[in-house]
TrEMBL record:
One of its GO terms (molecular function) is glutamine-tRNA ligase activity. Pfam families: tRNA-synt_1c, tRNA-synt_1c_C, tRNA-synt_1c_C2. It comes from Treponema primitia (strain ATCC BAA-887 / DSM 12427 / ZAS-2). Its main location: cytoplasm. GO terms for cellular component: cytosol. It is an enzyme of class 6 (ligase). Monomer. Residues 466-542 form the tRNA synthetases class I (E and Q) anti-codon binding domain. Belongs to the class-I aminoacyl-tRNA synthetase family. ATP binds at residues 36-38, 270-271, 278-280. This is Glutamine--tRNA ligase. Residues 29-346 form the Glutamyl/glutaminyl-tRNA synthetase class Ib catalytic domain. One of its GO terms (biological process) is glutamyl-tRNA aminoacylation.
Length: 572
């Protein structure tokens, strides 16, 4: 590992859990991962369920997968299936502990009735705009001190228990139009935390739910549903990202008022990565407005996008493990994620040769029709991977960048009169080149030294450059997609007035190369098979085929390790 890699942060969550077990607050550990099925999971969710599942495993407990599906306007079964697929791909199994908040609707309704009977909830007739006005807003004075002047009680706040019970039942029965009434908790309209100023528990929405259909026309709000679903499942530790810290008093209020299992909420810093947006809301906009090809576009930070890009679960888990669990938000440089990926791929990826922008190389002193098999190592990191045969012929493909008519200083590849080694093969010397009428170089000519096969060379034939190549006779045509950062700036959400994060989209995030060739073995690669294209980077076979019917390979990450150069670069 390079120097200045982020140290694993102090695992404060484990300390809290140990203390809870020691003092008898809980006799076991039970966590949950509660995604809302309104989008696909991204790498930020990986951190969340890594913590949820690993804490349960560490303390020999259990972890539930629960879908908090109380917002039918935005939820769909396709999101449920995508979430399950991604969690499993990351290596986690919830066994028989798959739950849905929608299964608890009757239970939640009964608890709402219970809180009404205690005199701590009421049906309100205020509109959303009126409710916001009555609640009040935070005010910043000239000394930059934020104050929250008291709000005003709703004129419907003092309805009787009997009237509130009747109105809630009629809300459920569908007597009132959408938005006409809400059920609110009766807490404190002067509370400094605006979330505790009589928050909404239920709202009327005539939306078809993907699981319950039209059985309900009132739906519980997240802050009401979440703690009580945790309690229903006996969750001991509800592990949430830091933005829910301000919600914790409300979490505890609903548990106390409903008199249910006392689940405990603990918050941790969410994951932030440079050049990336980690919000389902904004990712959905990228998909819906066709800035990307879909949720699994390899430029997306979704788990599906990372998988299609060629990431491995092991690399992602290593990344999350090494950045640790902290209580303070920070920004992690994406170069460290790429470092973890490169470390993993280097160990597992077979080496193979490919040429992205081909230029013909003709070996003038090689006999026409002659072919020779050379031995190539499959993976120098894994001796058990063995070797393969590659054919050497008179006409080869090399990269256009590996020849210069007039080379710049310190250019050690091919140019007139210079010699290089062809990987696994012979030393060749450039004798000339061909151009077409437009002045474009169409072929490079050379001679080979038969005494220099496979690394052998007389003392007077040492060369500084080695380039890769393919036999033009059996190279497989393919399409290659070169991916770069989707956003050209480190903080895409930092925008000037009048601009949006979309203005930070990079115009160079995708390059399509339809002229590429690879070794014959690539024709048999299955979608998801990963390779190191020698000198070029790591690539993965995409599920797509090109318009020509040829295989498509996505560039996962380059060989160059920028992290080793920049060291730790955590943007504060």
């Amino acid at each position: 590992m390079p120097e200045n890699v982020p140290e694993t942060a102090s695992d404060f969550i484990s300390e809290f859990i140990k203390e809870d077990l020691k003092n008898g607050r809980f006799g076991y550990v039970h966590t949950r991962f509660p995604p809302e099925p309104n989008g696909w999971l991204h790498i930020g969710h990986c951190k969340a369920f890594y913590i949820d599942f690993s804490m349960a495993e560490r303390f020999k407990g259990k972890c539930n997968l629960r879908f908090d599906d109380t917002n039918p306007e935005k939820e769909d079964i396709s999101y449920v299936e995508a979430i399950k697929r991604d969690v499993k791909w990351m290596g986690y199994d919830w066994e028989d502990r798959e739950f849905y908040a929608s299964d608890y609707y009757e239970y939640l309704y009964d608890l709402a009735v219970k809180i009404i009977k205690k005199g701590h909830a009421y049906v309100d007739d205020l509109t959303d705009e009126e409710m916001s006005e009555y609640r009040g807003t935070a005010v910043e004075d000239k000394n930059n001190i934020t104050n929250t002047p008291p709000g005003r009680n709703s004129p419907y706040r003092d309805r009787s228990v009997e009237e509130n019970l009747d109105l809630l039942a009629r809300m459920r029965a569908g007597e009132f139009p959408d938005g006409a009434r809400t059920l609110r908790a009766k807490i404190d309209m002067a509370h400094p935390n605006l979330l505790l100023r009589d928050p909404v528990m239920y709202r009327i929405r005539r939306e078809t739910h993907y699981r319950t259909g039209n059985n309900w026309c009132i739906y519980p709000m997240y802050d009401f549903q979440h703690p009580l679903s945790d309690a229903k499942e006996g969750i001991t530790h509800s592990l949430c990202s830091l933005e829910y810290e301000i919600h914790r008093p409300l979490y505890e209020w609903f548990i106390n008022e409903a008199e249910v299992f006392p689940s405990r909420q603990i918050e941790f810093a969410r994951l932030n990565i440079t050049h990336t947006v980690l919000s389902k809301r904004w990712l959905l906009k990228l998909v819906q407005d066709n800035y990307v090809s879909g949720w699994d576009d390899p430029r997306m930070p979704t788990i599906a996008g990372l998988r299609r890009r060629g990431y491995t679960p092991e690399a992602i888990r290593s990344f999350i493990s090494q950045i640790g669990i902290a209580k303070t938000d920070s920004m992690v440089d994406i170069a460290f994620l790429e470092y973890c990926l490169r470390e993993d791929l280097n160990k597992r990826s077979p080496r193979i040769m490919a040429v992205l922008k081909p230029l013909k190389l003709i070996i003038e002193n090689w006999e026409n029709g002659k072919a020779e098999e050379l031995e190539a190592v499959n993976n120098p990191e894994d001796p058990a991977a063995g070797s393969r045969k590659i054919r050497f012929t008179r006409e080869l493909w090399i990269e256009q960048d590996d020849f210069e008519e007039t080379p710049p200083p310190k250019y050690f590849r091919l140019f007139p009169g210079n010699s290089v080694r062809l990987r696994y093969g012979y030393i060749v010397t450039c004798t000339g080149f061909d151009k077409d009428a437009a002045g474009t170089i169409t072929a490079v000519r050379c001679t080979y030294d038969p005494e220099t096969k496979g690394g052998n060379a007389p003392d007077n034939r040492k060369v500084k450059g080695t380039i890769h190549w393919l036999s033009a006779e059996d190279a497989v045509p393919m399409e290659v997609r070169i991916y770069n950062h989707l956003f050209g700036v480190e903080r895409p959400m930092d925008v000037a007035p009048g601009k949006t994060f979309l203005d930070n989209l990079s115009k160079d995030s995708l390059e399509l190369i339809s002229t590429a060739y690879g070794e014959p073995g690539l024709a048999k690669a299955a979608p998801g098979d990963r390779f190191q294209f020698e000198r070029l980077g790591y690539f993965v076979r995409d599920p797509d085929s090109s318009a020509r019917g040829t295989p498509v390979f996505n560039k996962t990450v380059g060989l160059r390790d920028t992290w080793a150069k920049i060291g730790q670069k955590t943007v504060k």
